[in-house]
Amino acid sequence: LNFHHIGIFVKSLDFGYSQMSKFINIGSTSQKIEDEVIGVEIIFLKDTHNITYELVSPYGDNSPVKGVFARGKDFLNHIAYTTNQFDYEIKRLRTEGMIPLGPAKKAKAFKGARVIFFLTTLGFIIELVENKLEII
Amino acid sequence: LNFHHIGIFVKSLDFGYSQMSKFINIGSTSQKIEDEVIGVEIIFLKDTHNITYELVSPYGDNSPVKGVFARGKDFLNHIAYTTNQFDYEIKRLRTEGMIPLGPAKKAKAFKGARVIFFLTTLGFIIELVENKLEII
Fold it and tell me: Which of B23, B76, B79 lies at the smallest CB-CB distance from A81?
């Protein structure tokens, strides 16, 4: 799997951007992406060391992000990886004991490529992103 | 600040290594570092995309890592950055509302360079590492 980004949950994209800029040098910023299906609003930031951060904030009333704020944990939420073998890797990770957090969904942030989240055996979340095209 | 690593808390370094290898391609691995002062045992992994991960497990009876396991959260624990202006950056981050989690300490993992952890205004932890020499 290929490292893609560090996913961070923020109350609002503006607040997230302003606070991240206190400790990273933001080199480029994506457009804001509103994904009604998944219930999130997203921007990607790339720092001057070429590390990509995804800021995710709640969108709509049933956003899965709201639970994170209710629980007050896991703001540093996930590490995302791309793969050219999306379906194969899902099966493989399951046999390794990683637990899917819901089904794969098409994500607007990745131009309709599928994503799926797993709770790893180490207690944190990883995201798989189907690498079917140049994403950003 | 310069991205250095993603810090992950694991029950044991062996278990952490074996599980990380299920989803990253490990390119190189550091020696194991036992830091009695901070109460942690550490290895660094670098994946084939040049991302460095720090695996941290408890060492000794008073390890600060044990609280994370008791609370069952924040296993994806922190993002670490190096800086050549360690003392200046500590003051600056404080004025920006980031909260130091204890004093700066010399860390064996960084050959005695000082480290300090901050709770950011985004609810997750960052580590500052004094960049006084080539670390790894």
Answer: B23
Q: What does the alpha-carbon distance between residue B1 and residue A31 come to, in Å, rounded to a whole number? A: 24
- For residues A93-113, one letter each, b for 16 or more C-beta atoms within 10 angstroms of the residue's C-beta and e for the rest, the string is beeeebeeeeebeebbbbeeb
Q: Does B76 contact A20 at a Cβ distance shorter than 8 Å?
A: no
> Tens of pLDDT along A89-131?
999 999 999 999 999 999 988 888 999 999 999 999 999 999 8
Helices vs strands, H then E, count in chain A: 3, 10
The Cα B76–Cα B74 span in angstroms is 5
Q: Quote the CA–CA distance of A13 and A66 in Å, as a whole number.
A: 14
Reference A56, options A6, A10, A102, A23; nearest CA is: A10
Which residues of B fall within a CB distance of 8 Å from A78? 76
The pTM of the full predicted model, rounded to 2 decimals, is: 0.93
CA angle A89, A94, A97 (to 5 degrees): 130
Whether pLDDT at A20 is above 70: yes
Inter-residue contact B57 to B40 (CB < 8 Å): yes
Separation of alpha carbons B112 and B115, rounded Å: 9
Measured CA to CA, the distance from residue B38 to residue B54 in angstroms comes to 15
Question: Pairing between strand B33-35 and B26-29?
Answer: unpaired
CB proximity list for A52: less than 8 A, separation 6 or greater: A4, A5, A6, A44, A45, A46, A136
d(CA A61, CA A69): 14
